[in-house]
Structures
1.
Amino acid sequence: MVHAPSWRVLAASLFLAAAAGSAAADQRPQAAPASVATRGPGHAAIASANFLATNAGLEVLGKGGNAFDAAIAVASTLAVVEQQSSGLGGGFMAMLHVAKENRDIFIDARETAPKAVDMKVYVGKDGKPDREVSTKGPLSAGIPGEPAGLAWIAQHYGKLPLAQSLAPAIRVATDGYQPDERFIGTIAENQKTLSRYPSSAAILLPGGSVPAKGWTLKQPDLAKTLRLIADKGAAGFYKGETAKRLVDASRKEGGNWTQADLDAYQVKEREPLRIDYKGYRIVTAPPPSSGGVAIAEVLNILAGYDLAKLDAAHATHLTIEAMRRAFRDHNEYLGDPDFVKMPLDMLLSRYYADGLRATISPDKATPSDLLPTAMAPEPGMHTTHFSVIDKDGNMVASTLTVNLEFGSGFVAAGTGVFLNDEMDDFALVPGQPNAFGLRGAEANKPEPGKRMLSSMSPSFVFGADRTAVIGSPGGSTIITQVLEGILAFIDGKDASGITAQKRYHHQYLPDRVDVEDGVFDAATTKALTDMGHVLRQRSPWGFMNVVTWDHRTNTLDAASDPRRPSGLGKVQ
Ligand code: DON
């Protein structure tokens, strides 16, 4: 972080300079954002990463539930059929839109650090984060938020009892289902970790080996845990039998959770961030997600350009430069708002964006402050996002995670629940990258009860005639996927067009642009390279699940990422 102070001084002075010249041309007011239609579409749509989960949501809508009940059904079914991505042992963030009140709420069911958290245990002999500790086994797990979050949504926003919304998940866990090749593939990839814990192997490695296609996975312990939540609400998980199993099993395996940690877990409702861009209002995730702040910074920078007048290479160059600067601030300033004071007024201000824009050369890449010491790994297919619009216009965008595939890989025996490995999302060693190549500092250091910073960016985009519900998994790439999705929607694409669109990504460090095959034509690739950008092709990333609503024709479009065959977007 040797150059960090100079950047901060530079950014701050540019901020002041821009603020002083507040009549700058770029300060023209944006068109007033359209108010969202309070009348519903009359039919519903859901897009999720798994057809069983989408169908569970539709089933609950058919029983008279609203989008919020459907979200509980989708999330809990994903916790049964996509344990590699999300689950009761993890957390989530969700944007809710309550149509009749025209109100948006951010639900923060993110995990928290246990009270006994000790930064030292995550540092290896080489002074870098020890990934064995930070991503595997109970010490890598934060206190889960998903069960409390689902119970909270049922209690405050649902129409149906929690038990009814959990019923499809309980049924699938009890009766079993046949996992697809993608799921079996993730078992194979994680076989070594899973076989370390007999309780995990008993579920996913029948007879000690990777199951063959056609295998039926029944999860009676998980069904029992879900039933306890259905009967007792959050207490079915955080107290009594399940809680005791979670605490005892994790401590026996070297963990540090206590019953007091589970007792202390609280869901937080937070004000979403609102960004106005080209007549659209984007309502998105506030800290402890970094996504909304980063998206706001990028859009505020881009608002000063007329991208449509530029060729693809120059428009992309400016967007990459905006990403670079937003991720720089991400690393420096952001963390849990209950623990750190963040200069959000500055980061979200148009004047600040003017200052940042002034540092961008129109045709030359700015080298990032630091040279990378580690390459970010390929983002995998873990973490999940779903989108819902119901017939009344209620909406849910939710991203759910256990962090890496199967989280810590550790199941507390008797619960069927894989614990997350979200502790790796903290800045465990200042300046050193996490599993997604993200570096952090003081603001995101682990502290008892603190939420680790997230990239999850569930978002709504409201326009005069069109609305989008959008999000994706993909670690740090979540932010740029959602950003590019928002820009595509504003350019007129619907859910199918947004999910199919090719992607690129820059996160400040490592200083390179990740590109999906085919995202740029040869001329754009050459022009970007000539401007000094280092392009690196990587295998496709993300798993967007998007619903769009065109108010003019009253049509819904639900689409699941075409890169991933098991997803399902469905209009009812
Ligand atoms: O909260 C976060 O930002 C990460 N734990 C999300 C991890 C993720 O998206 C993995 N997906 N590919």
2.
Amino acid sequence: MQTIIEPFRIKSVEPIRRTTTAEREECLRQASYNLFLIDAKNILIDLLTDSGTSAMSTEQWAAMMRGDESYAGSESFHRMRAVVQELTGFRHVIPTHQGRAAERILFAVMCRPGHLVPNNTHFDTTRANIEATGAEAVDLPLPEAADTQLRMDFKGNMDVAALEKLLEEAPPGRVPLVMVTVTNNSGGGQPVSLDNIAAVRRVCVRHGVPLYLDACRFAENAYFIREREPGCHALSPKQIAQRMFAYADGCTFSAKKDAFANIGGLLCTNDDRLAAQETNLLILTEGFPTYGGLAGRDLDAIAVGLEEVLELDYLRYRIASVGYLGRRLADGGVPIVEPPGGHAIYIDAARMLPQIPRSEFPAQALAVELYRHAGIRAVEIGSLMFGEHARHELLRLAIPRRVYTQSHIDYVVESLLEINQRKHELRGLEIVEQPPFLRHFSARLRPL
Ligand code: F0G
């Protein structure tokens, strides 16, 4: 059999609501053309993010009922920690309410003004949390990743030569840690090879700098390694993930992605001294170290999710279904970042809409049109999100895990192909109001 099917059946459903074009026009006006400001009830298909939007399994819901809500030393914490330690090998497992809380604590402990933190590509919250300490976030993607149309197996890799150069030229003590984001979200959801993580590791060891993984989508990355990296096909996704973590000194993790949880994060390390400082900060803002801003039931959902996400049948379906969306769009003439990534398809809006300059946010213009036309919400990853650090003008269609069926995806394809037929009619936007950082969440815009 060739057909890859959803490896689950649906037991509980949630209605989605159609709106008229006129209603959507009004929603856009009220939201100042910022899709983060539109209420979910007015969205038909929500591809804003794959974060916290997964469908939990029956086993996860059952585990939630077992949640031990003790303030200190709960059974839920011990169950979660055992799973994480077995997977990652890290001694210290610090729960946080989501990924960025782990980032904030890690960088508050490790970074000072003038420091540099290299990453294959920083996610927006990672960059913002580094910059909030006065340090500088440096992206070191492969030079080939600049070409959105180029197909490479591991286009998310870090440029190891550039890392080596940065570490050689930086004054001693200036780089407190190196991060590698798997998969490379801001770089198109592209995977990072084991070979690349190993090479980064060797450079880090030579310079005495710890290596951390931003491990949000570690399981999707492990599946790509299994499919694409020589010598890895006989390994299970879990064995590959264990090898990825073995190269690192610690990780940050958002359980809202590859743990199928609706909330949660982790900060892990093998460094006893850092862990002590981190738990002190944790108590200040997140909570006691055995719950860290989460309910016991959330910890149990994470424990079960971390095992389910590594099932081969699930990962095969996941990567195939995202690839299906990508292939159909590309075959229909919509320029996507090639090859399709793990959790999302990214449309190269600068290429699709050459009449809209970067200063007028082509990917946001496409996001607005996709909502107006079909009630679909996607997210701009370009100059609105990253300002002058933006490398591309992308519209990300992030696919929530186990949530939408193939006919939902066919509807998304049809909508985008219809817009592509009249793409020359689209116009850009300008910002009328913006906050000082992470502006894409709340900026107000106006069509030009
Ligand atoms: N790192 C990466 C690579 C991420 O993609 C995210 C979140 C975070 C860190 C922060 O985790 O949301 O739990 O605080 N990405 C979501 C997204 C929001 O839509 O890509 P968080």
3.
Amino acid sequence: MATLSTPKFSTSRNEIAGQSVAALAKEYGTPLYVYDINVVSQRIADLSQFDVVRYAQKACGNIAILDRMRRRGVVVDAVSCGEIHRALAAGYSAEGHEIVYTADIFDAAALDLVVEHNLHVNCGSPDMISQLGQRRPGAEVTLRINPGFGHGHSQKTNTGGEQSKHGIWHSQIDDCLRRADQFGVTVTGLHMHIGSGTDLEHLSEVCEAMERVAGEVGRTITTISAGGGLPVPYNESETYVDLDKYFQLWDATRNRLSESFGHPITLEIEPGRYLSAESGFLIAEVRSVKKVGGNLFVLLDAGFNDLARPVMYGAHHPISVCSSDGHAVDDRELVQAVVGGPLCESGDIFTQREGGYVDSRSLPACRVGDYVILENAGAYGFVMASNYNSKTRAAEVMIEDGQAKLIRKRETFADLIRGEVIPD
Ligand code: LLP
């Protein structure tokens, strides 16, 4: 496929996948997550060269989204018991590696569930090999390798190198193979996910490292996984990765291994963000527009309890505005505005840089009652939402075949205190 060009982000938007922003907000309330399922389908299609597309469901795990992924031939990884249950609830089978448990530890419940369903495991620590081996001698496993270096859009999303807790350190393969032998465990897969926001220069080093480690493990290997990390542009200075080149590098690695082992090697990719980020929009309502010294603050009914990426990583999300009656606002004057939320915390700002520095954004002048749309919010958006300040979590809606469909109800006050107990 040709490399996708970075989209133009407009600061005025009155529809999402043909549905009126104002109508969606009126019907389902705000804050509201909206996913355009067509975008997910397109992104899946972009990756058709890979043998297996394994969705990192941590990016957006609503079971309706997982179901639609499944119907399009995408399998999943699960990083916790909860994610295994989600995948099963979405119709994934425990058979045939449809669900792979990928983590650096087993908690007791996860180990039980993995053993009960006989799930394939991608081990991120030598201890996992022994713990699984004791419970399921003769298992086949994948090893997640930390090649000694990594890459990320933020230090917090870099998953390789000495500072990362993820994966098995590249010089400990021998120890792992000894542990595996002890329990008759066979290493059939290798996996490297070195961080979110991969670029091509980095990738050839990752491929070399994969080949080196595969050579050490030997011919029991039948699958290699390129991990996730495919970037999506969050602003106009960012680009997509050249997927053809990306595939070619991995394909060449796979072919060399296949030739040297004398059997076919399956090539997996494990994206989260790439499949869901651009499908998702967070619609919020403007509740106050106020001057604070030289700054103009536009305060929304959504905060970092709904979308945590800006406060956590200084992440940039495109922002657009729609009038309360559903009209585009491209005729309004552009002003510099700081966009924030309702939480009792100064960091509750969507327009901030890493380090917590408040920035402003050039936006159409906002009025109370307008809608503000935080875009590219479909990955690590709702899934990182919290009940901080006792806020209920937003509803989620999917747009499919020109129809809006509720896929998660807005939380209620009863949900908020469920499980809490006042002892006598
Ligand atoms: N595979 C493994 C083993 C991972 O740990 C991850 C992400 C992925 C795949 C998917 O990575 P992606 O394709 O989505 O970049 N909350 C952060 C991202 C954390 C990523 C954690 N692991 C953010 O909002 O940017």
